[in-house]
Design a protein that fits this description.
The protein is of the alpha+beta class. The protein contains two helices and eight strands. Strands 1, 2, 3, 4, 5, 6, 7 and 8 form an eight-stranded mixed β-sheet that branches. α1 runs antiparallel to α2.
Length: 135
Amino acid sequence: MADKFTLEMVTPYKKVLSEEVDEITAPGFVGELGLLPGHTPLLTTLKVGELSYKKGGQQFHVAVNWGYLEVAEDTVTVLVDTAEKADEIDLKRAQAALGRAEDALKTLSEEDKQFKVMEAALERALIRIQVASKK
């Protein structure tokens, strides 16, 4: 069994990374998912959250926004709407987005069409702030 595997992360706009890693923790739709080399083949959905991976004893963090994860042989492929590495996140912009979402949610009722949109924006902003704090 190999001691490393390849992590490929792609958005509709670019290849975010292609790395040989030791392990991955991903925000699965039904719970956190831990992956090690030799994992059983799998296809699952991802929710908004923090994907982290270890490489050579160092931990890296990425904010991801909805997508899919596939484990096949010695490669994990992550296809997500957006992905931002911790050191790429503009913390001030994320905090501003959080403020806008919080303000909007104060004025909306749960029946309003924009309520779910603003709830999702709030969740994305919180994850981006959380990941940015780990750079």
